[in-house]
Automatic annotation (TrEMBL), chains A, B:
NCBIfam families: hydantase, PRK09290.1-3, PRK09290.1-5. It comes from Paraburkholderia domus. This is N-carbamoyl-L-amino-acid hydrolase. The keyword Hydrolase applies. Keywords: Hydrolase, Metal-binding, Zinc. Zn(2+) 2 binds at residues 92, 127, 380. Its cofactor is Zn(2+). Its EC number is 3.5.1.87. InterPro entries: Amidase_Cbmase, Bact_exopeptidase_dim_dom, Peptidase_M20, Peptidase_M20_dimer. The lineage of its organism: Bacteria, Pseudomonadati, Pseudomonadota, Betaproteobacteria, Burkholderiales. One of its GO terms (molecular function) is N-carbamoyl-L-amino-acid hydrolase activity. Transmembrane segments: none annotated. PANTHER family: ALLANTOATE AMIDOHYDROLASE, ALLANTOATE DEIMINASE-RELATED. Residues 207-308 form the Peptidase M20 dimerisation domain.
Length: 407, 407
């Protein structure tokens, strides 16, 4: 078994974290901004120093290739993303990219040749904070999203097209995809508290849960807070509060793997002395199994209908987006499990709660992921943190998995 | 018993409603804007045509006086306001002013002299939509608010001082108050649905309920919607939804006269895929009796504490404002009741849910109010509507009450 260089990995992470550093110790490198481009250039410089051949495709994905001994063999691929949330952390995404680079540096140190080439990829715009949808570069790569549609997407802050930003920054590349990868592996911080709570350095990611994004609109009737008797009200927020309380209670009760979140609520006219006439809120529903996910959504819709009726309001529940659960490739998952075990690291199987580029890759290639803990499960937050030891352990698992796969 | 001229009252209301008319049939005459000043000038023109003497005080209140026969006798006063909400109706406030004018016109028609003078007042800035607090002109008049504090208040839209707007529009008057009024009566639309539901044209207003304005701040912990297990969350919106549902349920159960409203809610960061870390919401609590009002507030605070604990959040409940209930003068209320009965109008006693200039007047003079129904109880809404017959009936009650009081 091989091990990566913990100090070198940490130094690279901290060097990258200086680009777009925020006051509270986090990072802001929104996709294709000058900061993110500076990060891309640093990554490319490091890859060249490690002897890699660089290619950029039309959506700006960066492929850094360490050649194998067999001519025209498909690549064993790993990667993640360099862009961050507006108030993001130092590890979400960038860890998976620099862990891949650290594997290549380690293989160089050991002077190991592989039969298949190894490619480290930095996927464009995983976060979707400037341009929706997120996971864009991997979606285009896997054929899930049309390149012209992606290039036409406007920046939510300035309106500039993504295609124009690719052109401006020099990342509208021309590389084509001759072959699908032999396999794809992605190392990532967990972004949740499960591994930390279990005191385990490695999560063997078996798949990603399915997601339904719902939008609930309740219409009641605006009236005067002081003059309208309680029994004559059609209070949209009263209906909403009862729905939200019941929906989240269902999430607690129905199954330990269920995740139900109401993260967004808007109330109209939102005036203290007026009974709300309209409320709009989001529901984010996730579960690893599709039948349970659909059961959850159906029960949520029933709760909304019943509560609206109770409070004299009307309700409309729209499905904004729906993603089925993804099961990663059995052999790839088993390879991660075995490498972890051989390295002597305690681990558990885990299902990814978040979406990752690996989900898109799983549609075109055998795929698996490796999770490491992050402090207090905190992510999408400037206070996001991770233990250098855990980060190195995850990268060592990645190294052995890539080596096995590429031999 | 005397009766007012229904058609003349309606025509004056509709003439006034053309000033600051909105697309949906409502009115926008914010205090001391050009539109409201145009309304003031029209009212003053009508008062002069009715033979009244006009005075304006330093806060811009307009006093239109029909002299009595006794020298230096205190005035029997009535009035309300000409300013409206931004998307206001054609009757809130303006009805009370023009009903007073219609009484004077009717007394002129009948060539009736009174011992005491009768004054119709248009109070400045009752709505508080440009300058807080509302009920400002009557508060200054009754000594509840210092004139210099009032003049220094900035416009919430432009920042201009109220004193400068008084100066600009010519309504920084010099009239002083030699005497408190003998009594004050205010006619107003109910702004709620009680009279309409009871099918009654007149409400004998016995007082105004007390009001507590509370602000609740809940702090939980932001985390990722997809990765944080339900049992490890500190969801501020889950705590808020359970509080709001319980608080409103309490409002329904505790007493038929209770009014509990959550009209305003803000959620942070208000992102669909992030568990809310902070929620702020308002509670508007009203009741005609102070002990019950205090009991309600105490129980609401207990609910907030308990629900916060259940959901692992912290909570802070601040009292933003507190007004004790007001009981109007027994003799004045009885005078309204008797005039209504003598006119043969069905009526009921009612407690005002909203604040009115009459509440401020009640601190310095015997006071009562007369309510007429408004369509569907709707007010602070461009669709606010009222029946010309009811409006005339309310004005006839006012006419007889003023005449009795001024004889």
């Amino acid at each position: 078994m091989i091990s990566v260089n913990q100090d070198r990995l940490w130094r690279s992470l901290m060097d990258m974290a200086r680009i777009g550093a925020t006051a509270k110790g986090g990072n802001c490198r929104l996709a294709l901004t000058d900061e993110e481009v500076q990060g891309r250039r640093l990554f490319m410089q490091w890859c060249e120093e490690a002897g890699c051949e660089l290619r950029i495709d039309p959506i700006g994905n960066i492929f850094a290739r360490r050649d194998g001994t067999q001519k025209d063999a498909p690549a064993v691929m790993c990667g993640s993303h360099l862009d961050t949330q507006p108030a993001g952390g130092r590890f979400d995404g960038v860890y998976g990219v620099l862990a891949g680079l650290e594997v290549i540096r380690t293989l160089n140190d050991l002077d190991v040749s592989t039969r298949y080439p190894i490619e480290v990829v930095a996927w464009t715009n995983e976060e979707g904070s400037r341009f929706t949808p997120g996971m864009m570069g991997s979606a285009v790569y896997s054929g899930k999203l049309d390149i012209d549609v992606a290039r036409a997407r406007p920046c939510m802050q300035t309106g500039v097209r993504l295609g124009d930003e690719l052109q401006r920054t020099g990342f509208a590349g021309t590389a084509t995809y001759a072959q699908v990868p032999k396999a794809y592996f992605e190392a990532h911080i967990e972004q949740g508290p499960i591994l930390e709570n279990a005191n385990l350095p490695i999560g063997v990611v078996t798949g990603a849960q399915g997601i339904y994004e719902l939008e609930v609109t309740i219409v009641g009737f605006e009236s005067h807070a002081g003059t309208t008797p309680m029994n004559l009200r059609k209070d949209a927020l009263e209906a909403a509060a009862n729905m939200i309380a019941s929906i989240l209670d269902l999430g607690h009760r129905i199954d330990p793997d269920a995740r139900v979140t109401v993260g967004h609520i808007d109330c109209y006219p939102n005036s203290p002395s007026t009974i709300p006439g309209k409320v709009v809120f989001s529901i984010d529903v996730r579960h690893p199994q599709q039948p349970m996910l659909q059961k959850l959504v159906a029960e949520i819709e029933t709760i909304c209908d019943q509560r609206a009726m109770t409070h004299g309001a009307s309700v409309d529940v729209q499905t904004v987006a729906a993603y089925e659960p993804v099961a990663f490739d059995d052999q790839c998952v088993q390879r991660v499990r075995q490498a972890t075990s051989s390295l002597g690291y305690p681990a558990m199987d885990i299902c990814s709660g978040a979406g990752h580029d690996a989900v898109n890759l799983s549609y075109v290639a055998p795929t698996a992921m490796i999770f490491v803990p992050c402090k207090a499960g905190l992510s999408h937050n400037e206070l996001e943190d991770a233990d250098p030891v855990h980060l190195a352990q995850g990268a060592s698992v990645l190294a052995n998995v890539l080596l096995d796969e590429a031999m």
